[in-house]
Amino acid sequence: MNDVFGSAILDYQEGNYSEDLVTSTSISEEDTLPLPYLFRGFSEMPSLEQTALNLSKGYVLDIGCGAGSHSLHLVSKGLKVKSIDISEGAIKACHLRGLNAAQLLDVMDESATFDTLLLLMNGSGIFQSLAHTPLVLTHLKTLLNPGGQILIDSSDIKYMYQDDDGGYWVNTNKDYYGELDYTVRYKNKEATFSWMYLDFEHLKIACTQVGLKCELVEEGPHFDFLAKLTLV
Known about the structure:
By secondary structure, the protein is of the alpha/beta class. The model has no long low-confidence stretch (mean pLDDT about 95). Helix 1 packs parallel to helix 4 and helix 5 crosses helix 6. A seven-stranded mixed sheet has the order 5-4-3-6-7-11-10, with helices on both faces. It has a four-stranded antiparallel sheet with strand order 2-1-8-9, covered by helices on one side.
């Protein structure tokens, strides 16, 4: 797959910022994702992300670290952080930003153990589908030290299916309304992949299936939320 996000992140890091990312989904029109947003500092982050970073403890695994902004804040607080992403460009940018422990790695291939697993900026996206969610959660469980936690944010996008008379239409091509095809474009590169926005109740059900306790930590202003998952 084209490393679209990585190309954009690395361009920005190396001073070659000339345009932003363009994103769209199977149920939404094109939207712009400004590259500076991926390099934001703690004070510019949404409240859910700030709360997650404040709750992070011990040895942290930043999953899908992107440009490394969350990791950098945690390192500045004195925490030990391993930052991973499947984007080669993103990891190169992390190294340039001083995150020497950043590694090109899929979380499903991770085997070390941590006190905090961090999945932010719609962390539920890595589940890809409702059916696949328990499989990923089962693996994440194996990465937790005793007393460890998973901090994950997501959104309930049911509102996007509401029509003018208050009813809801159903996407019959997907098993669950949060499962989307996500397309990202940057310069001459484009990639489409499966992505999922998971509502809290479905997250809680999946956690119960695999033996994780699921707590609602904070709700955001637009159907988004932060959850903490811990070993039962």
